[in-house]
Write a structure and sequence with these properties.
It comes from Flagellimonas nanhaiensis. Pfam families: HSP20 (PF00011). The chain has two helices and seven strands, in the order ααβββββββ. The strands form two sheets. It has a four-stranded antiparallel beta sheet, with no helix packed on it. It has a three-stranded antiparallel beta sheet with strand order 3-4-5, with no helix packed on it. The chain is elongated. The relative contact order is 0.18.
Length: 146
């Protein structure tokens, strides 16, 4: 038997094949990553409120449903669009559904008894959640390591 030295080079397709055959695509994070289909969100905390912005272009105000229960805020949107194309011999009809649901755990400092202000402008849904009166920011505490 003789040994052949490869001079340190690997075949360029070798890693791709190994990754492909060793990966379980049914439980792979990229396959089931729901974050890719959810709209992006920004959260800003101010002294007396939280401001949440959700990027949801292509919807109308009537398409949104916003609920708050048991410290959970749920924002849903559903839009259906009907397209019709006529030809000499047939009519083709397609329905296109755009929908998402985004839920988030609210901090204890949110006052759920007060109204949430919601506006939708230029594809951005803005929510304003007021804080409880006694929930102002605690001063920063420095802890010494001994």
């Amino acid at each position: 038997m003789s040994l052949v030295k490869l001079k340190g080079k690997r075949f360029p397709w070798n890693e791709s094949l190994i990754d492909f055959f060793n990966r379980d695509t049914f439980i792979d994070d990229d396959f089931f990553n729901l974050e890719k289909s959810l709209p992006s969100m920004n959260v800003k905390e101010h002294d007396g409120d939280f401001e949440i912005e959700i990027a949801a272009p292509g919807f109308e105000k009537k398409d949104f449903e916003i609920t708050m229960k048991d410290d959970v805020l749920e924002v849903s949107a559903k839009k259906s669009k009907e397209e019709t194309e006529k030809d000499e011999e047939y009519t083709r009809r397609e329905f296109n559904y755009n929908a998402f649901t985004r839920t988030m755990q609210l901090p204890n400092s949110v006052d759920q008894t007060k109204d949430v202000k919601a506006t939708y402008e230029n594809g951005i849904l803005s929510l304003n959640l007021l804080k409880k009166d006694g929930a102002m920011e605690n001063p920063k505490k420095i802890i010494e390591v001994v």
